[in-house]
Batch of 3 targets.
Target 1
Amino acid sequence: MYTKSEVNFESPATGMDHCSACKHYLGGRCEIVSGVVLPGDWCNKFEKETMMLTAGEFNAQESKKAEAARKKADARTNYPNQGIKEHALHITSRTTGKSVEVCFGPNGGGLVPANPFASLAQARFAHANPEKFGGKTALDEWDKSTNFKKLPKKVKKSK
């Protein structure tokens, strides 16, 4: 434990750093300086608290959680490490770090189901806002999978 004179204690602080942002500050006191310490004080033992994760650290954490959840689900299945038989492919996203199940089988053999648009109105909305559908390339994939001749102009509202 240091005394306030040993650490050039300032109350209130004259610089940009304050005890409230220090990793040693414990709300009204300090773990390394004796006596009462206020949030606006400062000493030369200041070390900035780093609670924020980088995008890479966050993605790595999320990936580990997703993989643990997948393994837990595999423990309950008759086909461990395969997922559901017709949905057997798991991919970990490089951007989000999440384990994603790529769907084959019931969805018509691809990543986009047959006739993904419910109506022509929805297709117009998608083309006006392609970023909501994964960008231009994803929208092109939806267009290729859609039979526009069989789409209604609007979908009836459900009651």
Target 2
Amino acid sequence: MSIVAFDPDTGDVGIALASRFFAVGPIAAHVRAGVGAIATMGSSPFKDAPEMLEWLVQGASPDDVLARLRERYTDIGQINIVDAKGRSASTTSQVTSSMWKGSRVGKFYAAAGNILAGPEVVAAFGDTFEGSAGKGLSLADRLLAALDAADRAGGDARGRMGATLIVKRKDAGYAGTDDLVNLRVDDSSNAINDLKRLYARWKEVRGQVPGFRVIEQSSGDDVRWLQKALRALGYLEASDRSVFGDDGTPVGRFNDATGRAVDRYKRDRSLGGGPSAGKETIDALARELVRKGGAR
């Protein structure tokens, strides 16, 4: 079972999938930044995925891609496609698929599966993804939430051995790669739970998302967020050149001035004290920023 999607605000394209199939990710997940995402499952022509992405590059729509495959093969299996324009298409084999099978196409996404517990699985994919729109969540968050909901609705009737979450954006990944998020579980008794743990770890280590690690003597985007928040709430001064550059950009290093500001904020809010910002402190800051009219 899989879902592919596009985020019009960031241009991100991505995929989340799971299957009772060992190491399903490299075979079934195909994503290219600025182009689209394709899931090839259920006896689909996996080897043609690079060519499908090239067709998207050349201007073909997802429906065009499926039509070209049908000219080539009697049966094209289960395929989800979304492109970087937000167009989407889905198909499920009427020949090789077994048990319950089906698909759903919506605004900026497509979801499908076969050998599923029932129609509620695909419904959970679509309802969850659509329901998360406009809530400030990243595409990776939305995809994983949709996959988790589909799994809780019954998912693959055989179980989940492998799972994958991939989101790509041009030059936005580690060291300038396009891999914003690229995680996979190959052999597990509950691959989706393992994938969720990997994603939480990614948020801490790679994403540097505020609240996923204790911020202390470190550096990164979460430290920059913290410094901006403390400035917005009056605990740091924009003129402090140990924390902010001439243009007002936070330096992103947790230095003594930042530590002192954190300590004052925590004491004022009865959050204890000390120069470290864990989840409780970050959540408190975020709530105040929302009330103040800022953005987390």
Target 3
Amino acid sequence: MLLARLHGRMVVTKDAKLRRTFLGACALMGAAGAVRSSRAEVDEGLGPEIVRRWYKLWDTTKDWHQADLLLTDDFTFTSAAGDDHISKTQFKANCWDTQINHIKRFDLLQVFSNDNAAFVMYDCITSNSRSLRNVEFLQFKDGRIKSIECYFGAKSSFPSAVSKRQE
């Protein structure tokens, strides 16, 4: 939640401040020409390694046990597809189990990361060679993924997970 009520007043939560800081940093980097359009530019630190491991699990490993170890016990997943801070168990049933065999690979286009969080833009190539583009905000805790918020591309732009044309 971006805003919370505290003593009758609306205040910005810590997560909202972190997200706003990252968005601002991403905008500044883009304006300064730091964003490259070819392959992902990744900062040093623990965050990029976690990001690479997570998407590699979907690409080649496809092993839930390894994914489970990379996610914290209190992991949550949120997306515009009706997933509102669902648990790790719900994520496995609703997302991993239903999608893992349809994903061929992830091409990481942009990664902005530190030890606590990362924004990742990727093209997902499906097993039937279609593609979709999403952006995900990952938060880390103790070297593991605490949460993922998935933002789908608009229906009228690049094909995305919400496009009717995607199968």
